[in-house]
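We modelled the chain as a single entity of 334 amino acids. Its sequence is:
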Amino acid sequence: MASSKITDVLLRVSDLEVRFPAPSRFSKARWIVPVNHVALDLRRRETIALVGESGSGKTTTGKALVRLLKPWGGQILYNGSDVARWSGRKLHQYHKSAQLIFQDPYGSLNPVHTVSQHLSLPLQLHQSQEPGTLSEKIESLLSRVGLVPVQEIRDKYPHELSGGQRQRVAIARALAVNPEFMVADEPISMLDVSIRADILHLLQNLQNDFGLSMVYITHDLASAYYIADRILVMYGGIIVESGDSGEIVKKPAHPYTQLLLAATPGSPVEGPLPETSTGAPNLLLDRQGCVFYDRCPHAMARCQVSQPQLKSIAARHDAACYLYDDRPSEALGH
């Protein structure tokens, strides 16, 4: 946990929405909304985790935060300025501060470029002003992410590296421009189990050494608990629960978070999970009711009518669920 070193807010996101056109047989345009009115704060030197299944909106949110996707609506306030509306030179400068580590260490590197070429491009593109030659900077980055011997690694091509080594190259490439925050999109999901902890430990060390903020995207609550100060659980493009990591893992409130925890390796739950469906969430703009209604074992009539909003259920713990609407204030931890 890193809460003792956290200071002010670096990134404040409000009402963030991303839309894509959906194929339709009708003349009326239809939209899918993979990110639906998301709000979050990222403080300096803090790690938050976006947790959810595939299709929950995590990666789309991450790409919007670093402006690889332009939001349909909402604000992304970076040091008080709304980067959701930036373009051109201002957006180029923002990309120096906001970097993305892709999930796939095999597809995110150019197969015809050496490791050295992968690192030299961002250094030259953003005109790093740190002292030293380009070669010295590349060697320093490789050493910092544990790719040694440097002289042997720098001239290799991606196909000559292991999956863990490729992901370290991707991390070094993100660090090359001295970002203020990084979005790590499931950086260990395609790696061997034996090296996943090493990559998480590396990310923690880099955050401490460089004073980084980080958004860690994962489907795994265990790794989120290990690395993150706070966890935000997403389903169907909506944040359904958020809070301190320990609180979320030890006292999950939303039925979806409870199902995620039950499906985590080491869970005491045996047999089929207590859900009524395994279908994908409805992401259409005109959907009604709670996004988790079809799968929820506690669904009520009003859940089919409107989406519950995030509300405080304990200190630094929010959930979007009607189960908590009628609880007395003393039961909510206030």
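As a brief sanity check on the tokenised model: Confidence is low (pLDDT under 50) at residues 328-334. Residues 6-23+31-332 form a domain with the Rossmann fold fold (CATH 3.40.50.300).
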